[in-house]
């Protein structure tokens, strides 16, 4: 969220490159994450402003990947999934605008109609509607992987695997030998599976907050493509292990639509890499119980992936 003078400076910087940009008085903050802010511009488009510094890694590459992905996906729409059309994007040449932290770039895209989901809203919804939503998410993933793979092949995309990248970032951040061992074991097992393929073009960061639901008879909208690239399809479920029963309904929907169940070894490796990334990002933050939950999830995923020996008993 930016103060009015900074919003004006952003407007002056972006407007020459993006026709009919509404004035900042019409911008409504829609979301704010580690890497920046997203505004609903009240004209059917959204503006995402990406910072240079946020979590692990850097904002320039996140911005670059998201623009590349939205360009090649070109508003992909099937019966089950849809992606916003890109309206415009550019890196900031002056990354010091107003009182904003250093900025990497902006992306203007079509605003998708519908309910913006969150993990809390999904987990607190009635079991029946959660099941249906999970199945629709699974079908959306199957459709996305199929259609996006064709488009990425046609575009000759070289966007690389987010799991391997996450493991490298997490390893650099983590200090303990035990965590390094876990990173190395996951990376090796993951690369072995990737060598067998097939690789598909994945969204790479699917969690409820990156999904827009416009009703049960409409395709689910996917946003936030900064982690997209070539990977194993199971990467799409990397955030799903803590979602309980919704993981199973998503698997069901995916299997019904694609004809193939997710491979559980690949799924647990991707989930373990994700758990490590969360530990690298959050460290010992929060209540001690949160910390225990984070390491508990990592142990569980390692165990299920057949890598129990990499971490000692608590
Ligand atoms: N094209 C869009 N249409 C509708 N809502 C969007 C769109 N893009 C982003 N949002 C909303 O803004 C929020 C933040 O955007 P996102 O791209 O996920 O950024 P972050 O990197 O902060 O997670 C999303 O959770 C979603 O609710
Ligand atoms: Mg997001």
Q: In summary, what is this structure?
A:
Helices cover about 45% and strands about 15% of the residues. With about 325 residues, it is α+β, with helices and mostly antiparallel strands. Magnesium ion binds near residues 33, 209, 210 and 224.
Description:
By secondary structure, the chain is an alpha+beta fold. The chain is built from nine helices and eleven strands. It has two domains: 4-111, Phosphorylase Kinase, domain 1 (2-Layer Sandwich); 119-310, Aminoglycoside 3'-phosphotransferase, Chain: A, domain 2 (Alpha-Beta Complex), CATH 3.90.1200. It has helices spanning 4-14, 59-73, 119-123, 127-155, 162-173, 177-196, 245-258, 264-282, 288-304; strands at 28-33, 36-40, 45-51, 81-82, 86-91, 103-110, 115-116, 200-202, 211-213, 220-222, 229-231. Strands 1-2-3-6-5 form a five-stranded antiparallel β-sheet, with helices on one face. Helix 6 runs antiparallel to helix 8 (264-282) and helix 8 packs antiparallel against helix 9 (288-304). Bound molecules: adenosine-5'-diphosphate and magnesium ion (MG). Residues 30-31, 33, 35, 38, 46, 48, 84, 109-112, 116, 209-210, 212, 223-224 line the site of adenosine-5'-diphosphate (ADP).
């Amino acid at each position: 969220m930016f103060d009015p003078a900074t919003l004006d400076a952003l407007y002056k910087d972006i407007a020459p490159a993006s026709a009919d940009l509404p004035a900042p008085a019409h911008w409504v903050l829609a979301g704010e994450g580690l890497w920046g802010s997203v505004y609903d511009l009240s004209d059917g488009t959204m503006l995402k402003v990406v910072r240079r510094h946020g979590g692990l890694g850097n904002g320039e590459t996140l911005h670059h990947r998201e623009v590349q992905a939205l360009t090649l996906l070109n508003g992909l729409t099937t019966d089950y999934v849809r992606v916003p059309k890109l309206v415009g994007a550019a890196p900031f040449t002056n990354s010091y605008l107003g009182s904003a932290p250093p900025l990497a770039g902006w992306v203007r895209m079509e605003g998708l109609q519908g309910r913006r989901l969150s993990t809390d809203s999904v987990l607190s919804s009635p079991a029946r509607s959660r099941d249906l939503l999970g199945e629709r998410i699974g079908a959306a993933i199957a459709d996305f992987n199929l259609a996006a793979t064709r488009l990425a092949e046609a575009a000759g995309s070289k966007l690389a695997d987010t799991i391997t990248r996450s493991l490298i970032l997490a390893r650099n951040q983590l200090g303990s030998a035990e965590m390094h061992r876990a990173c190395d074991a996951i990376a090796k097992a993951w690369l072995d599976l990737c060598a067998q393929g097939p690789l598909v073009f994945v969204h790479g960061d699917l969690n409820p907050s990156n999904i827009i639901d416009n009703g049960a008879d409409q395709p689910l909208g996917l946003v936030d493509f900064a982690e997209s690239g070539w990977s194993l399809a199971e990467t799409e479920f990397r955030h799903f292990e803590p979602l309980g029963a919704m993981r199973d309904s998503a698997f069901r929907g995916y299997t019904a639509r694609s004809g193939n169940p997710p491979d559980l070894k690949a799924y647990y490796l991707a989930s373990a890499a994700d758990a490590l990334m969360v530990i690298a990002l959050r460290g010992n933050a929060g209540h001690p119980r949160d910390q225990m939950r984070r390491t508990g999830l990592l142990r569980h995923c390692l165990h299920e992936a057949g890598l129990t020996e990499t971490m000692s008993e608590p």
